[in-house]
């Protein structure tokens, strides 16, 4: 066994009921080339300090029993994260028994890591995974990879969570083969991209840390970064927002999760629009279509969450004993339940699985470049600052042109302006880190003022449309309550419109941070 290796793997989620279909998928039978899936019982015990000091430094230490083949111990450390395609340094040595012995490692790099982070620390077992692994080597195009289907649990103390996933580990060839094969299999079997390791699940169990809404950290770019690297960084952030918040929608855990998932999709759409001229058509068009479709599947849920959590409480506070208002809440809750069902249908649709895999591929390597012209390749290879200026210029011109006579805009035109402002906002967040922070902050502040007012006007328009879905089943009191809400929104619009004109004026008169 070679002690030091680099592990590159693609991880996918699969419903246990689909495992048999996967094993019998026609494309899989073809690439197995007669080889059979071999099943092994794997028990992996992960070690760390009580405060997870090793994990905080990017280290994972594992002892594993491989069926009847004995024991081994492994150290893993991140070798840079290509979002959907982690690449890790990995060192493995055989053990006579299941007792951790870090002195058995001989490679100088891992010894240096262990001496720095693990020596003189109390290290003990923290959690374990217990699973059946069915594995086989595959030959696909010019690549060789291992397919592993893992079924079992991750356990910490008395707590455990089920595991059902598929891993493709690259042994030879280009990572593109992993995604291409996964996309082929996805036509037969529902497979969803995963960016969570078993170790991360085990740590969450150990810390008793449940899932919740995930808010992305700001995109950090540097002025010497290529436009392509910056673009892939933006894609990676959006993908992580989608995947990290998906559980909130599936399990209805946190209304903010749906909001952040939509923001992730929106940011991805903005990134694709900003870079549109530098991307070949083909898959870029498909991605935009898939993002629009999947985002639409969350719209109803988010609208009812805003209505029930932000709008209706204001009316209830003013009219605490109004029977129609209470009836309105019950009716809205029924509509929200339907919207939640629709969101879950979207998450189980083939289009959602396809979206995740293509985004994962685009964020992990230069898949976007297929069919790109020499001019597009040159633009994406240039420093991000060279590309940011014209992109921000175009976004700024759209906002100022559409908002020129903002007081005269119709509701649909205000909605279009809001979308342009949102694109400008995300463009500022994407590229802001390569410009002077003080100038960016001032620009973003005035832009945010516009966005907040436009968002409130849009909330009013959406709420009016959603209220129409409630009226058929309401009593006379309920119809009165609808009138109360409509009147409140009407007053709010009248109050906000003058402020929007002032906000637009302040925005257009300021200096541009990228000039």
Automatic annotation (TrEMBL):
InterPro entries: CHAD_dom, CHAD_dom_sf, CYTH-like_dom_sf, CYTH_domain, YgiF. Residues 224-515 form the CHAD domain. It comes from the Bacteria. Residues 5-209 form the CYTH domain. Coiled coil: none annotated. Gene3D superfamilies: CHAD domain, Hypothetical Protein Pfu-838710-001. This is Inorganic triphosphatase.
